[in-house]
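Cast an eye over my tokenised protein here and flag anything odd:

===
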Amino acid sequence: MLTGRSVVLRPATAADVPRLAAIRATPEVRRWWRGGDDLAAAVRADLADETTTVYAIEHDGRVVGAIQWYAEEDPDYRHASLDVFLDPETHGRGLGPDAIRTVIRHLIDAHGHHRFTIDPSAGNSQAIRSYAKVGFRPVGVLRRYERGEDGRWHDGLLMDLLADELVG
């Protein structure tokens, strides 16, 4: 378990699937995370991916989201990439930045990572502001980066953070 100021991160389990799928089903989260018609299957697939570590984010004893990371292990390009989603009812409370800081500190201390990336949709201004609060900086626009549910290609924003730039 990893403890932040307001959140606790613990390895997500099969018991978390219904709650995480329900959060992913909210319009505010589904817009960015999608996942097909069976969100429980999408969450189970994330948990089964051996290259990704998924933590349930708890606040006041309740699962309010998930944060996951995976590593590029090539020693010449080594870094960790993050993804996060939170229940919209908890937005604006600083829980996202707290979860990100907590996992990054763990990745620095326990895994020796020095660089981190995250790649929100270029249109997800709320996420971009949240990531900037912990020190992530825009690197560049990933043009036509991901296909949306509307079938069209949408831009992403590549952001990165060096360990000594972590804010808070």
